[in-house]
Specification:
By secondary structure, the chain is of the alpha/beta class. Helix content is 31%, strand content 15%. The chain has 10 helices and 14 strands. The chain has an 8-stranded parallel barrel with strand order 3-4-5-8-9-10-11-12, surrounded by 5 helices. Strands 1-2 form a two-stranded antiparallel ribbon. Strand 1 and strand 2 form a beta hairpin. The N and C termini lie far apart (42 Å).
Length: 375
């Protein structure tokens, strides 16, 4: 008797059970006001929460105002930002029981930028909507950027504590899991890579030293929230630049995280250095996820131009990763999990209001949701 598709098998990560292996990856919307979510986020997250995926991840959420990528980024650093997020989550949860995770991060030297559709360039501290950036070392991301200030020990404590405080707020909001952002050239990645970290103290130099601050952040967050709450990490498997962060260092970092109780690792790549040479194509980052998966036992999420159901099924079916993350594919097609289930012969949860939309040729495609969680 043939088994069903692996992509639609449930998976449990530190007590959190997901109905399938499809993870909606965090996607910045650049539509917040003073760090507060708006009606756009209600619409955006609301329709993704009806998609039938296994997990919905809230976009990169800054733990401090100066840690926002842009002035339009979401934050979770004070009562106002928490209240705004509570309003959005309350409405989403009234109609969906999909688990919700949040990605917490700090942009470091890549902060203080304009919105992508306005060019995305960095805004100088002296200009409207700009501020002074901070980083491990006073090295700008681009030649035209205002150089960041190097974080001193007191400021490192402040950032570390801010990650923990944001995680506590997330737990108070009933968010199911926290992902720490150590990828795409943002602050924790800046500490990891020798291209951006030129410190000569205990946070720079050797691999052990460069991993120190991201691991301290993980430990602080892990201790701040309930033991059953999954804490995961998103990493760039490589900088795609000679002499930069690479897959061997990523594996060492993954081993250190696993030893500390990290619940899963989400393997992306790049974003740290403008000299990167990325071989972009379908599944181009899957070999990085595979390498981490083969080197340890921590659950792994693969991401990167995974657009076809059969490709996603092959990734989890062959053991290259435990889950697949979809970002742009979900923006383009918010019903991607429905279509994947139809193609692969699986079932997916659909709202009761939509059950009658099931095409006749896909009998038993939909199943009704459980009662949505209360706020």
């Amino acid at each position: 008797m043939m088994s069903g598709p692996k992509l639609f098998e449930p998976i449990t990560v530190r007590g959190l059970t997901m109905a399938n292996r499809i993870v909606i990856a965090p996607m910045c919307q650049y539509s917040a006001v003073d760090g507060c979510m708006t009606d756009w986020h209600l619409i955006h997250l609301g329709h993704l929460a009806l998609s039938g995926a296994g997990l919905l991840t809230i976009e990169a959420t800054a733990v401090l105002p100066e840690g926002r990528i842009s002035y339009g980024d979401v934050g979770l650093y004070d009562d106002a930002t928490e209240a705004a997020m509570a309003r959005v989550l309350g409405s989403v949860r009234a109609h969906s029981d999909m688990p919700v995770a949040i990605q917490l991060g700090h942009a470091g030297r890549k902060a203080s930028t304009n919105l992508p559709w306005l060019g995305g360039q960095q805004i100088a501290p002296s200009e409207q909507n700009g501020w002074q950036t901070l980083a491990p070392s006073p090295l700008a991301f681009a030649e035209t950027d205002n150089p960041p200030l190097a974080l001193n020990c007191e400021e490192l404590d402040r950032v570390r504590d801010a990650f923990a405080a944001a995680a506590v707020r997330a737990s108070r909001l009933g968010i199911d899991a926290v992902q720490l952002h150590a990828a795409h050239g943002y602050l924790l990645h800046q500490f990891l890579s020798p291209l951006s970290n030129r410190r000569d103290d205990e946070y720079g130099g050797s691999l052990e030293n460069r991993m120190r601050f991201p691991l301290e952040v993980f430990d602080t967050v892990r201790q701040a929230v309930p033991a059953e709450m999954p804490i995961t990490m998103r990493v760039s498997g490589t900088d795609w630049v000679d002499g930069g962060w690479d897959i061997d260092q990523t594996i060492a970092f993954a081993h250190a995280l696993e030893a500390r109780g990290c619940s899963a690792i989400h393997v992306s790549s790049g974003g740290l250095d403008s000299r990167q040479q990325i071989p972009v194509g379908p599944g181009y980052q899957v070999p990085l996820a595979r390498a981490v998966k083969q080197a340890g036992s921590i659950p792994v999420v693969a991401v990167g131009m995974i657009t076809e159901p059969e490709h996603a099924e092959a990734i989890v079916g062959t053991g290259d990763a435990d889950m697949v993350g979809l970002a742009r594919a979900m923006l383009y097609d918010p019903r991607w999990p429905w279509h994947a289930a139809a193609e692969l012969g699986a079932q997916v949860v659909a709202p009761e209001q939509y059950l009658r939309s099931q095409p006749r040729r896909y009998r038993d495609l939909f199943r009704a949701p459980k009662t949505a969680r209360s706020t």
